[in-house]
Every structure is written in C-alpha cells, then in structure tokens.
Amino acid sequence: MGRIKLIALDLDGTLLNKHSAVSDENRKAIAQARAQGVTVIVATGREMQSAMPYWRDLELESPLVTANGSEVWTSSGELHKRHTLDGTIIKELHDISLEEGCSFWGYTTEGMITADNWSGITDESVWLKFGYFSKDPDLLQRVRTKAEKAASVEITNSHPSNIEINPAGISKASGILEVCGMYGLEMSQVMAVGDSLNDKAMLLAAGMGVAMGNAQDEVKRLAQAVTGSNLEDGVAQAIRRYVLEAAD
What we know:
This protein is about 40% helix and about 25% strand. The chain has helices spanning about 10-15, 25-35, 50-55, 85-100, 135-150, 170-185, 200-205, 215-220, 235-245; strands at about 5-10, 40-45, 65, 70-75, 80, 105-110, 110-115, 125-135, 155, 160-165, 190-195, 210, 225.
C-alpha cells in the first residue's frame, strides 16, 4: 500500500454516530488528514439532498459519491456523472414488492419515493436506486431472488433489513474511481471505510479497505482491517493509524 491520498467515508453506521452526527474526534481526524494534503470525500447510499448537509458541515470542498455511485458530484456541487435504472426495471421491482407484500423505497432525481408518493411517478421519472425493507430475512431473500431474476442489476444493502438496487456495474467503487480520475490518483492510493454490503466494492477496490467495528460480518471478513465502531470514533482511529501515522 502506497501513501494514502484520498479517504472515502460512508456516512450511516460509519462516519455518523447513533445521533446521525459527526463526533468531535472524527471531525478532528478529518481536519488533520486534510491539513496533510489528503482529500476526504463522502461515499454514501444517500441521495444528494440528504448527504449535502454533512458535506457542508465538514466544509470538505471535495467531490461526493451518492446513491451508491449512481451519482458523482464535483467539489463545486455540480453533477459530474449519473447512472439510472430503466423504467421497465423499476416496474418489475415494484411488482415484486406487491407480490411479496414487502415495503419498498427508492430515489429519483426528485427525492425519496415510497408507497405514499408512488402515484406521482411518471414515465419521465429518473431513478437512481430502488430498495426493499423488511425485518423478515426469509421475505428479503425471496425478494432478492426474484430481483436477481428480473434484471441485471447491482444488489447490496446498507442494513441487514434492507436491499438496495443500482444499475449494473455501478457501486461506490465505480464512483470513487471517477473521483480518482479528477485528481489523477490510483485506487491504490485510497482508503475506504464502511460498514455494510453497499461498501463491499469500495473496500475491495481501495488500497486500504477498513471495516467498522459495527460492520456486518461479511464486510469485516473482506476488509484488510477492522477499526472501532461508529460509537467509538472508528473513523478517527482508522485515519490516524493508516493515514496520519503511516505518513510519518
């Protein structure tokens, strides 16, 4: 692993604590890394509207990877690249939710979609991500099996109780690769930190993939290292150990 020049951080369950806030220690470590010339970006499953407040709060002045890589935004907040799900795929995925009685949700370029505002969907709606939610693992497995047969898509999760679906080939890793292109960096110069299966691709592709202490077991197994939980300033621990101390 060469010197880390870019840090990609997931939000929920990673950078954010149980109050959906950035701890003082995490904030301090991010500032220290930036002071050493390291670029810090957010790579999240959230859509731009809900990710932007954290980007502004941290004054990152760096690109954002949102909706699991379906959108990449420049440091000035301009759209750099967008990948979408075809409307016919969305119809099939929505039909599965009705067949199985499973709650669904998703992101269009207009914001979050649920059963409550599904009636507002039109042929012109631009879909970034579709998802399901259930605390019944058997139901989720049936839904996943049907979704895999319905279309060629990327299927992950951001929590054991949900399924997240993105366009084929699109992930946080593909989004970070776009960011690396902006800065003339290689993925070997990236440290990625996350906790869920939608972080899997970026942890595997990065030069240093770090799983949170609260990460799903599969994520911990594939990561190169495991840091503290999101209640223990795990992001700060990872930055100090693998970026700041490694640079000394």
